[in-house]
Amino acid sequence: MSRRLDAYLEPLVAAERFMFYQAACDFAHQEIAPHLLSWERQRCLLPEKARQAMADLGLFGLTVAEEYGGQGGLQTELVLMGLALGYHSHSVAITPGAAASLGIKPLQLCGREDQKQAHLPDLAAGRRMFVFGLSEPGRGSDAANPQVTATRVPGGWRLNGEKCWSTNAKWASHVIVHAMTRPQNPPGHRSTCFIVPMDDPNLSYHEMGGKEVWLQSSTGALALDGVEAPESAMLGEEDEGFRVMVTTLNGGRLFIASLALASLAFALDACRGYAQERRQFADQPIGRFQRVQDVLLDMDIALEQGLTWLMHCTAQYEAGHLSRESAAKVKIECSRRASELLPLAMEICGGVACLDEFGLIRHQRDLFVCRVGEGSNFALKTLAARPLMPDIQGLL
Fold it and tell me: What pLDDT is attached to residue 307?
């Protein structure tokens, strides 16, 4: 059965971009889908062989310019990869996705040329990976005021504190640390970002245990105990770490929206197939019943609407016109609608939907991350409401 997603996507992107999307779908179908259930049941992180296969395909360097050894793609290619890989597994898709949108993107947007020359070729080839050290045990939505501190010392800075929920930490060569440098400054001008090697003797990492979402994705906690960072390690301008953070997260929110829509697309295909095969009540396919049709149609409408909106926002991002509010709204709505409709899709399929091999329970579980990742939807609603009430001071 053809994917409903493909029919809506093809008119929205150029032919060569759709060809890339199809190639990524073929890769996911051949190299990921056959092994996914085994990985999940073993509760193992994404194996090295699979990560290397993605590197060989060029997925880690997807948005890196050709002059640095990358594929020369833009945000559209990143979103298309999210749709293609996320259709099967968020935790597989987020591995190259976070490497590009949270690891490489800050360097591309705010890095000096010497930093780009030093890191981008290896990042594009998958020989290195940057992780974005943003979230902290005591700081989630209030990421603009990190508790990790960077204090000036002769020759550079000394970093202390903890980071958590850092995607790809296990495989990372460096971490971009968002740290408080001048708490007395006005909001938005208090923090600075630093590129720190993961093998620094004063930096320790451990995988966060007990996680029941994105099972194949590495999620690490990092402790910095007197890490020495030279001036050359600064990413962006001093006290302008907030700018690095917000420009990075705009694109990341589009990628998260693509994962939510990928889950919705998978659920729609699974349910419409099941509704035509499952027979009940005088041997009728359950797809003949109005309530089943209602859910399938709602899913179809949400997929078409969300995909059209997402690709529009992606084009705006590439043109440099996407506002923080627009990025927040498309991420909120795509993750919200998918999360609302997945339980209904599971009800259509009944008990079989609870089986891991059917796939719906994986997407139901992983969609939670789409609602809280790259900014909690609750917090982002406050951000997105700013243009509606410009006279109220103090909105995020």
Answer: 98
For residues 206, 211, 214 and 217, what is the CA-based torsion angle, rounded to 10 degrees? 10
Taking the chain, what is the end-to-end CA distance rounded to the nearest angstrom? 45
Q: What is the pLDDT of residue 394?
A: 58
- Asked if residue 93 lies in contact with residue 85, where contact means CB atoms within 8 angstroms, the answer is yes
User: Tokens 């949108």 belong to which residue?
Assistant: 101
Q: Where are the domains of the chain?
A: 4-128, 131-239, 243-388
pLDDT of residue 393: 64
CATH topology match: 4-128 vs 131-239? no
Residue 387 DSSP class? G
**Which of 206, 310, 297, 215 has its CA nearest to residue 259?**
310
Q: Which two tokens stand for residue 394?
A: 């103090």
Q: What sign results for the dihedral spanned by CA atoms 59, 370, 249, 332?
A: positive
Residue 280: the pLDDT is 86
Cα 346 to Cα 271: distance, rounded to the nearest angstrom: 8
pLDDT tens per residue, range 326-383: 999 999 999 999 999 999 999 999 999 999 999 999 999 999 999 999 989 999 999 8
Q: Which fold has domain 243-388?
A: Butyryl-CoA Dehydrogenase, subunit A; domain 3 (1.20.140)
- Reduce the DSSP state of residue 209 to 3 states and report it: coil
Residues written for the chain: 396
SS3 224: strand
Rounded to whole angstroms, the Cα distance separating 349 from 71 reads: 41
Catalytic site positions: 374
Q: Is 188 helix (H, G, I), strand (E, B) or coil?
A: coil
pLDDT score at 142: 78
The ranges of the chain with pLDDT < 70 are: 1, 393-396
Secondary structure (3-state) at 184: coil
52-64 pLDDT tens trace = 999 999 999 999 9
Please give the radius of gyration of the chain, using alpha carbons only, rounded to the nearest integer.
Answer: 21
Q: In CATH, which of 4.10.910.10, 1.10.1760.20, 2.20.25.100, 2.40.110.10 is domain 131-239?
A: 2.40.110.10
Q: Which CATH architecture has domain 4-128?
A: Orthogonal Bundle (1.10)
Are 221 and 208 contacting, i.e. CB atoms less than 8 angstroms apart?
yes
Residue 268's pLDDT is what?
A: 98
Asked if 141 contacts 376 with a C-beta cutoff of 8 angstroms, the reply is: yes
